[in-house]
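Quiz preparation item.
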């Protein structure tokens, strides 16, 4: 049997989507491909909550973070990175690499960004943009982007709000237009149920104005070229992945976005109960724990690396902690193509691995929580 991925990308891919990957590629300069791009754009607009077009690039999420920075800003701008973990820090590193004067406001890992503190920071200088993570995958925290954006807008109408929704889009609500966001980016391999390799971005009218006047270097990654080519792409696109992504979006639409979000919420509480039944604590604050990934604190002396290896022996892949959280947490991802059967299999592997390690817990208590709550 193949390993079950309970990782924050790649995630499992539905059969219907896998089938789409096994057909001959179609040519990208055909009406047939245009129709697929338009259809994908239609569905993604609903998930992004926007009327703006969605650009697709062959890339992972980081590539699209970089593209956003390169298209929007230059060395005469100042940006503020709002960081609650590894991916917030990454946004700062990318901007700094482009020699864009970058400040960072960091919040305690496991907590959300505090809008009041962000406003205080924004008042200190004239910033052109603010870079924020929606779902901080490294800590299992979901930021309240609506609240943050509202606070930021009270401070400035024209600051560009750039949101990394790489690990959230398709799993939790996003309302790009209503929340007045400027650039939202995501990638195929997480809640969007498609293999890695495709990244997406949507850009507001305000941000297009800024892009028009920005002379920072970009060629392949030019958002304007991508926009102006639509419903074609400027260069050869990953046609097979786009066909697969379009199919995965059909599945999401069939299920209904609301239902997909409710499903993720239910799964999050079932997983929380399961790990607590095993005697663990959740790393994130209860009020902001992500619906899509659970970071689990381990007790002192617990060998997390060995635990993850043991879980793999039972056919399930989990993730460890990153940076300062290495060895201190493990993470169970539950986004995208996820269901009760997968979680039962995952919990069984976790319990088996704990038995191997001689960890004391009530056997079957994790599995029971999944059984009873889903
Ligand atoms: N941002 C977030 C919130 C992520 O979770 C990830 C991937 N874990 C990335 C950015 C980077 O994406 P990628 O690995 O696809 O480059």
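Solution:
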């Amino acid at each position: 049997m193949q390993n079950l991925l309970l990782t924050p990308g790649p995630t499992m891919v539905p059969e219907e989507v896998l089938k789409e990957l096994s057909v001959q590629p179609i040519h990208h300069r055909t009406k047939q491909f245009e129709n697929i791009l338009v259809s994908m754009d239609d569905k993604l607009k609903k998930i992004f909550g926007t009327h703006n077009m969605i650009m697709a690039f062959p890339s992972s999420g980081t590539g699209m973070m970089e593209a956003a920075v390169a298209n929007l800003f230059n060395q005469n701008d100042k940006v503020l990175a709002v960081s609650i973990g590894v991916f917030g820090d990454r946004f700062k590193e990318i901007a700094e690499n482009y020699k864009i004067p970058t400040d960072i406001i960091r919040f305690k890992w496991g907590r959300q960004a505090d809008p009041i503190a962000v406003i205080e920071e924004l008042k200190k200088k004239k910033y052109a943009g603010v870079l924020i993570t929606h779902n901080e995958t490294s800590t299992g925290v979901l930021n309240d982007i609506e609240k943050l954006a509202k606070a930021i807008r009270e401070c400035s109408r024209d600051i560009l709000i750039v949101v990394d929704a790489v690990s959230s889009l398709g799993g939790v609500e996003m309302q790009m237009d209503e929340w007045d966001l400027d650039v939202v980016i995501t990638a195929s391999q997480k809640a969007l149920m498609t293999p890695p390799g495709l990244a997406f971005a949507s850009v507001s009218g305000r941000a297009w104005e800024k892009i028009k006047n920005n002379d920072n270097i970009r060629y392949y990654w030019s958002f304007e070229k991508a926009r102006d080519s639509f419903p074609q792409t400027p260069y050869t696109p990953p046609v097979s992945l786009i066909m697969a992504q379009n199919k995965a979006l059909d599945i999401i639409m069939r299920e209904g976005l609301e239902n997909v979000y409710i499903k993720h919420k239910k799964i999050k509480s079932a997983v929380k109960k399961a790990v607590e039944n095993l005697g663990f604590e959740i790393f994130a604050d209860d009020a902001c724990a992500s619906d899509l990934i659970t970071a689990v604190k381990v007790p002192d002396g617990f060998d997390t690396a060995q635990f993850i290896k043991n879980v793999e022996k039972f056919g399930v892949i989990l993730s460890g902690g990153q940076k300062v959280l290495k060895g201190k947490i493990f993470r169970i991802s539950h986004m995208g193509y996820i269901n009760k059967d997968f979680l039962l299999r995952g919990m069984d592997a976790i319990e088996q691995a704990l038995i191997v390690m001689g960890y004391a817990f009530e056997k079957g208590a994790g599995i029971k929580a999944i059984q009873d709550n889903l």
